[in-house]
Design goal:
Elements: E1 4-10, H1 18-28, E2 31-37, H2 43-48, E3 53-58, H3 67-79, E4 85-88, E5 93-95, H4 99-108, E6 114-121, E7 128-130, H5 137-140, E8 143-148, H6 169-172, E9 177-185, H7 191-204, H8 213-217, E10 228-230
Parallel strand pairs: 1-2, 1-4, 2-3, 6-9
Antiparallel strand pairs: 4-8, 5-9, 6-8, 7-10
């Protein structure tokens, strides 16, 4: 079986979804490379409790200052494990359970060197996801999360402090397989987090360079205006 290395950046995730994410990844990933961005809670200890994890820690946080540099650091640590394939997930994202059966096929197929998945934003809980506006997984379409490591490709990111992407630019331009595996994104599942996440997003993008203003404002829409579908 080709070697799969998962990678992620974490910061203060101990009391959120990280443990579930790592348990899920441990089923099908050979290694999980984690760059801890100066957590002040028990996140590092939680990561280290998983045998598959290779943990690296920063003493000062970089995510809100220079995300592209942080992503490059994570990439360098990841490729040092000699992976054949690399999976880029965040600490609040889960591939659905059947990934344990599907991932081996995706790693063995030789028609594509990249695989795209749709991301579903759970909203106000885990049973429903948003389908209005740019939240719609069908309107947003597929994004590449799984790639075959190719040392000849440049490992460059756009020089952006925010929304720089989780994979090098060259990998995002590869022809890719559209997988029907879904990513369950839990970042908006807790109603108590929605307002502060809105403030953080707008604070980092006050001129609406990376997302339309209407999309940011839709974060705070009243429940009757939000369109949801049940996760099945």
């Amino acid at each position: 079986m080709p070697k799969l290395t998962a990678m992620m950046i974490v910061r203060n995730e101990a009391d959120r979804y990280l443990e579930r994410c790592l348990k899920s990844l441990s089923v099908y990933a050979d290694e999980i490379v984690i760059l801890d961005d100066a957590s002040t809670d028990a996140t590092p200890e939680l990561c280290a409790s998983f045998p598959a994890v290779k943990l690296y820690r920063r003493e000062t946080s970089l995510f809100l200052i220079d995300e592209s540099r942080l992503r490059r650091e994570l990439w360098d640590y990841t490729v040092a494990t000699n992976p054949e394939w690399i999976l880029a997930l965040d600490a609040d994202e889960l591939l659905e359970e059947r990934a344990a059966r599907e991932i081996p096929y995706l790693l063995r197929q030789d028609l594509f060197t990249a695989v795209g998945f749709r991301l579903f934003d759970c909203w106000g809980g885990e049973e429903y996801y948003r389908v209005d506006g740019l939240w719609s997984p069908w309107l947003r379409g597929f994004s590449i999360y799984l790639v075959k490591y190719q040392p000849n490709l440049p490992a460059a990111w756009p020089e952006q402090a925010f929304h720089c992407g989780r994979l090098p630019l060259a990998y995002r331009r590869l022809p890719y397989l559209e997988s029907d595996l879904r990513i369950k994104h839990l970042g908006w599942a807790n109603p108590a987090e929605i307002r502060w996440k809105y403030k953080r997003a707008v604070g980092r993008d006050p001129t609406f360079k990376y997302q339309p203003r209407e999309h940011y404002e839709s974060i705070l829409w009243p429940p009757e205006k939000i369109q949801l579908e049940k996760w099945r």
